[in-house]
Amino acid sequence: MDSAVVQRVIQALDLVYSSDTSVEQRREAEAVCQQVRNDPEALAYGFYLANPGNQYPAMVRHFGLQVVEHAIRHRWGGTNNGLDAQGCVAIRDKVLELIFNLTREDKPYIREKLVSILVMLIVRAWLSAGWTNLSEQLMRLYSQSAEGREMALSVWRTLGEEMFVYDRDPVVTIRKSHLTNGIVGALLPKSVVVELYPSGYRLSSDTTTPTTTGGGKKSKAVSLVVLEPGNEEGWLLRWAQYASELTASSAGMKELGDARETQLVAVIDTIAVYVEWVPIRALVSTQLIPRLAAALLVRSDVVRRRASEALETISRRNIASGEDRDTVLLQMAQQPEALSAIAQAYGTTLPNAVHNFWDDSSEALVVARSLAMVCANLVIMHWTRKKLDTNVLPQPEQFVELLVAMSRDTRYTVAAPVWGCWGTGILKHAAVARVPQVASAFGALTEHATQALFGLCRAAHVLHQGNHGSAGVDEDEAAEFESVGELRGFLTGDVRGRLLGIVRGMCQIDPAGFVGWILPSLAPVFGSSDQPMAVVEAAFMIVDTVLAALDEFEQHALEESDSVRMAQVQEARAPCYELGRLVVQFACPQGDDVQLATRQLSTLPSFAFLLRPNSINNSTDGAPRDLLMAVLQKCASCLHSSSNDLALVVARRATAALVRIASTIPDSLMLVYTDLSQLVQERIADPAVSQSVKSYLREFQLALIAGATTCSLPERKALAQPVIQPMVQALKTLSSLSLQSPTAFIEFLGLPHLDQAFASNGSVDEEARARRGQLSATLSTLYICLNRTLGNSDTGLAAVWSDYVDDLAQPILLLIRCIHALWNSAHWQHLPWQSAQAHDRLFGIAADGISTDDTTVAGGPAAKEARDVQNSLAVLRGHAYRCLGKLVHLPELFSGSDDMANNFTGCLFADAPSLTARHWRLLLVEVMRPVLRTVGNWPGQDMSSGSRRGVDAVAAFIPAWLGPLFAFCTEQLGAEWQALAQRNSQPTTNSERDVGTEITRDAVIRDWTRAWSQLLAELLSSIVYWIPDATQIEHDLMSSARVAIDVANKPNTGNPALGSWLLHTPDMFAATLTACLSALRFSDTQAVNRTVMLLASLTPSLALIALMPMYEPPSPALVSTATSYTSRLDSSLTVSSNGTCSSIFAWLVSDCVSALAAVLRDPLLIDVQDHVLLGVADLVYFSASIVERMPVNWSFRHSSGANTSNVAGDPGLAFRHAVLSSLLASLDNVDRVSAENTFALIVGESESKRRRALLRVALQPALAVEKSKLFDDKTQAKPAKPKHLSANEHDVDGSWSNKLAGHNASVLDNDEHFDLSSLLP
User: Fold this and answer.
1) Where are the alpha helices (DSSP H) in 383-483?
2) Which residues form a coiled coil (predicted)?
3) What pTM was computed for the model?
């Protein structure tokens, strides 16, 4: 060890942590620190710097521990200066020595770092031959002093978090099973271990591993719980007793000292890490639940909060089977000590008592909410769990009383969980709901729920008006929300839903009785127009919920042929018709607020279940028909006036209500179609009704025609013709006038007249504005109708639209082409423009859409008209794209595939270089994805065999534009991302406008990239449709009988016709895979993650298929199975004509692995690493399937000929070596021998998570993982708890910690245990 190096490190650390250091000095200092970390003698330097005997400052000691931690993390398992279990044991002794020599003066971050290192060593080496006495060592520390006990607790707590909370260290995944057995043996009392595992444990001193062999399978190690001699009572009991001692000694204290509070918090936090998974019987034997409940009564806010959180964790335990499945419920809700403590602790949190028992009322709220969650979990997950048809709580009186009390809590965040457990648990569980003690609470519960709902609506209304003080919300509760809007959203969302759940549940228990009870309460509300808005709104919600509950109740009764329940529904119908009459006749107050009117219109479709055809036909008094007509007339009455924005909102809600009714009961509407048609035509002819509302009325008509089951196809065509024909004719007329050339379109838009207006400051062309509005309205109506009646599945109007497909497609393609031409200046710069705005940017239309600069002259009628043109074009572009994306659902569109392909290609690429990123994003999302998802995949195709008609349609339409699209988007996006990287590397300006422009530009490029990844995902999904995952292929190859590959019932996540065509078109298949790999270069996490996930699913299957021709199947059945897979791809992809590796083989081991390795190196794609590692690990694993895991002998093929490969030896082994070579060529700092050993381990590892972890450990030195990422993972995985300072700690000005932020920040500051502020005065 060089002393000069030590001095350089100390000097470097002084520079790193000095606020006066320049950026260049800090960079050089960090380089010195990094050199020490990577030095072969790093461990020696680390322990020397960390040794308190050398009297270095705390920051130097901490860095020394960082060096030790870095060496352990990055050298474990390697062959080049690597560490093994024995090496870790040697380091352990030095770490324990440092821990035992700690003093009170040592900084907390020194202690935490030592604990972190010891836990890292435990994960790697504990239970090996050299380390079998962990409990003994920690027991010595535990018994040494109060500080030693706290350190021992910290070790166990950190170990539990590493194992079961965070997912940071891949070694945990590799050794998790072994470590879990050791932790179970260490935590549980020996008596419990013997009871639970009578033949499944061993002593830690017995290092032999018993094996079992059977059925011709390889020997497999038996997983045994490990018991250490001398630890018979177990750590869990030890902690429980310690907690009880502290709790008992704290009884009666009005104030808990800092030391005692710290001790209690430490032991409860340690217990809390393990209670989520430790066997339930251990909780019972250690009396942990009542002991934690007793801690709720200690006079310390933080202790009570920690105890309530631990109990909440236990209550979440999901024990679906076994003899212990009811233990948690009985221990908490039945045992007097625990239930009494919970109830007593909850009582202290109530607003009228909180100041007598709590130092901080906000802490009381947290504990009350946690205890409410405990009770709610006990109900949902234990008392009323699924598949339980009995009551397992013999004496529920006190527990029900506590639930009722909590449901009356005025704090919404406390009461909401309990309301939820009533509505979704108790009221829906027949056995529990019939318990007398439970049923007796229903009356009070229902009354309180309805009152609370009225109060909640009032509070939400007050908050909406911005009057927070009079909303009646608890102050501490309101302070937890960042804004009034967030609080209001919580009340109107989650809380309101839980209250309505109680209403729904009570209605389904006794339909007629509940409706009869609620009707007298609602009648006065709807009978008067001067009721408060909040009251009326709540009444509408109750009506909506009641009707939905009755509808669901009736459906279940019909499905089960339950005559009793049908009679109950029939009895409830009469008051429901009366309720409907009240709702329809309610007159909303006139004013600017249309909330009540929209709520009323939203409620009307809920009456549809009362208005089904059989109800109308079988009614003797005509009540259903009268109500139906009243509902329709009410909706129609809201369409008369649309003179302002609020009236348009009401009109739109009315048409939405009509569409919902048409979708729900179309056959009922057909019974009154004559009157209904007249009503609709009156509104369409009414000039006071806006054009947009008329569009939605046509949508209503078509939705009704599409859903009517009583209409034949000719009848549908006859009914739809008056609705569709005007739209088609209008589009054809406008097309003939304006879409024959870009110049004609410019004239149609009125741009020449606008140019004159700019040049002379004259008036605008009103006729041009009217033309634009007419075209926008026509396209808008068309899209609305297509979207409603021509979706992703077969509808009743598909055959109707087919008659008009030619008349619709051509004008839309022409419109798209004309719109695109506006962005190409070659089409308009030669025209005789007079104004600078026209000649330069065509009034801002041809701008890139990214700059925040105003693209038109501010003010004046011409500028306003220019903005109107821009808005009109945005609407036309969006609707044209979407209409085309809907029309591709019609096979008739492709009847002349050559013409359609040429027109489509011309539409896409005529002006492609001039189009902006927004154009391409919309094109990809609205047009090309629907095309790829739909072409050839029409209803009625035989998906199991790949319809020839569908494949032929794909072959005729797709090739003309898909290849050019790959080339264009890959090149353009590559250039955009390169430019983005260059801009990001340049110094930023202080201009807010420039910053906004860059943010917008970044967002637009990312949107385009994500749309591109979605399109590639459609292609990969279509390929995956025909290629099962590798696990299924392996299973089929291991079967002794012929296995038919069934894709008929496979989820329709891709286009089978497209997939079949791609697999049998080598050039396009290769182009697709190449485009996918190229897309991995664009550093957008969302886009890359989507592509990598599909590649990780597909590539192992391709590897198996590529290797199959290199082996000789041992039986005819397996020959048939292998052939069934290879035949799904073109033979040139799986077999090479010159006897070398196939193209898929070469692509996998070269292009694919190199591209995935590049993702591993990209620091911007850290979140994608797990999927990449899993994909590579699966490639390695499944390449050994045919030889390593087959029960029969597959032989290698070495003969010459077209059906062979010139790979010597095992082709799978050659494949893995090629993968390894390609991977190592792309990654630095990875030891080849270690990687080869890892590959060998992966081949024999069946668990995918462990395979991924093995690969992560091997590639750790080369992965783009930052310490800051590890820190982020920890803070995100578990919410940080508020810091409570002990007596010897003090707060430090946070500005000191922030001086090194931004570009001056050191990577050393990202250490999860280090706080720079603790070094400063």
Assistant:
1) 397-407, 412-421, 430-433, 436-439, 442-464, 475-479
2) none
3) 0.84
